[in-house]
Design goal:
The protein is α/β, with parallel strands linked by helices. Helices cover 31% and strands 19% of the residues. The chain is built from 20 helices and 22 strands. The two termini are 41 Å apart.
Amino acid sequence: MTTPAFSRRTVLGAGLGAGAAMLMTRAAWAAATELDLAYVNARVWTGVKGAPRSDAIGLVGNRIASLGSAAVRAGTGRKTRTIDLGGAFLMPGFIDNHTHFLRGSATLSQPSLRDAATPKEFTRRIAEAAKALPAGEWLLGGAWDEQLWGGELPKREWIDAVTPNTPVAVARLDLHMYLCNALALKLAGITRDTPDPPGGVIVRDAKGEPTGIVKDGAKDLIERAIPALTDAQIDRTLDEGAAYALSKGVTQAHVTELDWITHKALRRRHYSSPLPMRFYSFVPLKDWEKMAAEVRADGRGDDWVRWGAMKGLMDGSLGSRTALFREPYSDDPATHGIALDTPEKMEEWISGADAAGLHCTTHAIGDLANSELLDIYARVAKAHGVRDRRFRIEHAQHLSPADIRRFAAQNVLASVQPYHAIDDGRWAVKRIGEKRLRGTYAFRSLIDSGAHVSFGSDFPVAPIDPLTGVAAAVLRETIDGANPRGWLPEERVTMEQALHAYTAANAYAGFQEDRLGTLEPGKIADFAVLDRDLLAEDPEKTTSTKVLRTVVDGKQRFGAED
């Protein structure tokens, strides 16, 4: 089915019809004579730097019309619905800068191996999940972590006996490796004679037989054998994911995918049964010409579903030893990682996408991958001239000190995911040694350098719950409890910096700072209401904070009805 182009009414209306909402000035909103909704008795953090805290917020349609109890009282009339928040904390809605939203949503109903702490428990959970599936249906999900049982990668022999009729492809928690059973390998046509594909590794035993582990580019061989989801399955999964994200105060997700499945589904859903939160869709960088044609034909969407953004990959992950470093891995000197595509190919794609006016972001983990990407961005920007392109680096995980300064100098945005720091912090030193930890998850250094830094989750690699990410950035306490004073504590950020990175900074990262990310008259009313004032209480309590309400486009999408 061909998706119709967005009309001007759709793009500009966003809730009040006929485009009036987008075209009214902030002064006009502030002068509105009667509010539709008034939230009072609140602790309001607007997110506006240097602005005082407030205690009430008033809405007209999907827009913020007034702030502060005096202004809200002045705009309250007979039709105004007033909601007393009882002193709750009201803040801009969380925006997640990096999700694999469809895959993450699917994991909500798939077996989880995240806390399977022994090979025996790993096998038990796979066996239990396989029994619940019809014969022949693929068992997916996973999020296993080999560090929990000492670092040995799982093998297909662990699960073959308990899954004779169920093909299995369960992902490591970083999504850069699958463990597959014998049946899955057979269906994918992977044998001892199958060569490693470009940018990928088929792990083999001493006899040359596949162990069941496939890394990065080799995952494509498995994914081609997995039956595609139906539209009905995709819709059900997206509905479940959106409901879950809203329950965590997330009002928008950037979907940084390497396929077109979620993008097509989001566009289709936008015209049939719109989802209750916002999405910014990224598709594979190599397909930039296809996206450029879509933008020419249909524009870039609206504030509910937007596109025109591209996602590339420079390297793999630290956990899989496929992140690209200058020096070899400390615990495997035979490798220093892999480039998933050549720098020449990446530059060709980024240059083409940028020339077409598309928004480029690229995954880079290792110090060499980040350095080469910054070089590519610099050359492309110089070749094409000055414009507001907002190049992004996803993860920006392990940086040389000199490269930290380049983000601000080149106006490259660091799109980082704080939970990875408290997860990888348990074992990162084994991979790269003490010396290379300087510049690792360098959130504070990047912020202090003047760079634009935004936060997200990498869902389902990490929980989509932004409060876990906020706590990770502020406290940097590793999830094993071994670093109560913080892992690399000099890189901790303040609570306000963390909240800014999850709100206004992400609006900027998606070209929406003029209408989202802060609470100001005239801006769209996306906000979350929490039971604890994050700026006034002990940061150690952050993860036990509850989301009471989530409002998107002026309407409550999560929370109890009054």
